[in-house]
Each structure stands twice: as C-alpha cells, then as structure tokens.
Amino acid sequence: MEKVSGIVTCFNMENEIEQCLESIRWVDELIVVDSFSTDRTVELANPYSDIFLQRAYLNAANQKNWALEQASHPWVVIIDSDEIMPETLRDEIRETVENPSYGYYQVYRRGIFLGKEMKHGGWNRDKNYILFRKDIYRFNEDEVHARLIPEEEFGIFNSRLIHFTHRSINEFVVKSNRYATQSAQKYFRKGRKGTAAKIFFHPLFNFLKAYIFRLGFLDGARGIISAALSSAYVAEKYAKLWELTERKPE
Length: 250
Fold this sequence. Notes:
single chain, two-stranded antiparallel ribbon, alpha/beta, ten-stranded mixed β-sheet, 2 domains, Spore Coat Polysaccharide Biosynthesis Protein SpsA, Chain A, 7 helices
C-alpha cells in the first residue's frame, strides 16, 4: 500500500483538536498547520504531529494548497479540525489506497449542530473532499467552498465523517458573517450584482427548500433554527453584494 500523508489545518480549536488528531493519527505522516492560535491548540496538537507548522491564514484553499507542498507521500487525507474520522471510514480509506479506482474521493458528513446530529434539511447531502493524489490535484482559489481541480470522476465512501459544525448560535453568526463577506467579494469580482429582489427571494427560497422541501421540520427546533440562520446568511451575502455594487469609487 502506498503511504498516506494526513493534513489538518486549525485555529483556536482547543476543545476539538485532540479528538480530531486522535482519529487521523493512523496516517504515515501527520501534518498540522496552525494559524497562530491564541488558546491551547498548539500545546495540544504538537504531540500528535509529525510536522507542526504555523502560517498566517488567507483562506481555506490557500492554506490547504500550501500544506500539500509539505506532504511527503503520494496520497493525502485532509480533514478539518472540527471533524472526526470514525474507524469504519479509516478502514475504508486504507482499503481504497491499496486498490484505488479514482484519483480522488469525497465523503458524506454527519453534521452535528448545537450538540445533535441533523438528518434532514439538506444536512444529509453535505459532503467534502477527503482523499486524493497529491501530484494531480489542488484546490482552486475560491475563498468559500473551494473545489478540487481538475474536476474529474470521483469515488464516494460509504462511511460518513463526523462534522461538529456549530456548537452555539453565536459561533454560527460569527462564521456566517465572514463567509458572507467572502462570498459577496467573490460574486462582485465575477461581475454579479446585488439587488433588492435577490436579497428577498434567495433567502425565502433557501428557507422553504431547507425547512419544507428537504424536511428540515423533522429535526425539531434545530431544524427551524438552522433554516432561519442559513437564510439570514444568504440575505447578508446578497446585501453585502448590493453594498459593493452601490459603493461609489472614492
């Protein structure tokens, strides 16, 4: 079996980092890239790491692409510091590397929102890149939801990755504000414009899709909170795009 490098990027994740790294320490080389954490993340992550590095954070794609350059082995496993890899997924990845059918693989995630797994509202469709050949693939430079390129046919694992998305509503609001800014800037560079209609209708459709059409109401209070907050994020994204569109050059 070809050797595998594991990559985890992190910032101020003292409550999650040990569980994350413990679940991926089976790799042949574990690389941790920290964005100058100010809590105990560095202290806790160091013992697990074969290579521990610190680098200023620009965006997720940029950080991961830089980390890839530090990897020694042909196959790379990347998970985020708020994710945990179950043993079933670990075993599936090991078997795949012995006889791969594709150059890269994605994985569905079990989203844990406010302390409980979400099974509806689109959460069950959430997936991410996890395993790929270092010599072929890189992330594009999109600030939000970067894609692995070149885009080709890929495999999907049967086991799911555990993803602790938001432990509190405040955490959701803080993150969504940053993502809304980045998404608006991305749209603006591509020539898209913010309008009152987009600010109204896109969030409305997002709520109906998540809460009604994708059965988010079956997740109880968390279902409506998730649908409402994600729709507020969509509204903020297009409002910030409108602000960029209307801003007069100084």
